[in-house]
């Protein structure tokens, strides 16, 4: 299927690929990882989005980014799915732990990875309790992500 783009009511441009039609293989399942895993970075800071999108690319993940929790929830509500979602736990526009809970309810398979520049010891339990898979101090590096993915069979 050739990729196409669409624009949501909120003005978010989305690339429609096979990844948006469900997970048949890749990071979270399937016997044959024949496609590149898909990822999404959610962060209100443009430089942080750029850095963390590059980290996903360095790990072989096709990545997009959005600014707010509302935007990521719009994507998931439209049926778009990602193998990995990297969320800043202090992004603007919505309470991040609530966004994490809602994402987990919408997609039990996505790997939800939090990043924080705040108090790691306080944020980590709250993020994990909300349904996140792991929380890392900013910046997330390719080495940290590869190690985590390797430990979780991906």
From TrEMBL:
SUPFAM superfamilies: CheY-like. Transmembrane segments: none annotated. The keyword Transmembrane helix does not apply. Residues 1-18 have a biased composition (Low complexity). This is Response regulatory domain-containing protein. The modification 4-aspartylphosphate is found at residue 88. PANTHER family: HISTIDINE KINASE RESPONSE REGULATOR AND TRANSCRIPTION FACTOR RR-A-TYPE FAMILY-RELATED, TWO-COMPONENT RESPONSE REGULATOR. InterPro entries: CheY-like_superfamily, Sig_transdc_resp-reg_receiver, ST_Response_Regulator. Pfam families: Response_reg. It comes from Nepenthes gracilis (Slender pitcher plant). Keywords: Phosphoprotein. Residues 38-153 form the Response regulatory domain.
